Amino acid sequence: MKINKSFRVPDLTVILNLDPAECVRRISENRPSTEFFEHENILRNVVKDYNRFAREYPNVVLVDANGTINEVHSKIVKNIEDKLFPEEDYKKYDIPF
Questions:
Q1: pLDDT at position 5
Q2: How far apart, in Å, are the Cα atoms of 48 and each of 31, 59, 74?
Q3: Using CA atoms, how far apart are residues 8 and 11, in angstroms rounded to an integer?
Q4: Which of 46, 88, 91, 68 is nearest to 54 (CA)?
Q5: Entry pTM
Q6: How far is the C-alpha of 49 from the C-alpha of 20, rounded, in Å?
Q7: Which residues pair with 62 in a beta bridge?
Q8: Is residue 15 pLDDT above 90, yes or no?
Q9: Which of 95, 73, 79 is CA-nearest to residue 14?
Q10: Are 62 and 72 in contact (CB under 8 A)?
Q11: Residue 34 banded pLDDT, cuts 50, 70, 90
Q12: Which of 3, 29, 36, 70 sits 20 to 30 Å CA-CA off 88?
């Protein structure tokens, strides 16, 4: 993106990937109303754009956001560890992992 060319590229960008229907279900369970963009048809386009973003830019991971909060948290942590702290780097320097 030209607009961001003077900024550093993040070490890692994590995108939570979830079916739009499930997004709407979760939103409606937790809030009395929705915002303009929190409708399934709009969210389908948002998901498509984020998937394209993940394919086109380095250091982007899509994390499956299905599951409980703890399950999703574990998936996020695992991706961060795998991408930013690969085990082979620790082995190289004899650091316990």
A1: 80
A2: 25, 18, 24
A3: 9
A4: 46
A5: 0.78
A6: 13
A7: 15
A8: yes
A9: 79
A10: no
A11: confident
A12: 70
Residues 13 and 76: their CA atoms lie apart, in Å, by 11
Please give the biggest Cα pair distance in the chain: 53
Distance CA 21, CA 79 (A): 25
For residue 74, pLDDT beyond 80: yes
pLDDT surpasses 60 at 90: yes
Give the span between the Cα atoms of 24 and 2, in whole angstroms: 32
Q: Which amino acid is at 38?
A: E
* Structure token pair of residue 64: 């499956």
pLDDT over 80 (residue 97): no
pLDDT score for 86: 79
Cβ–Cβ under 8 Å, residues 43 and 34: no
Task: Return the higher-pLDDT residue of 38 and 5.
Answer: 38
Q: Which residues contact 75 (CB under 8 A, 6 or more apart)?
A: 63, 64, 67
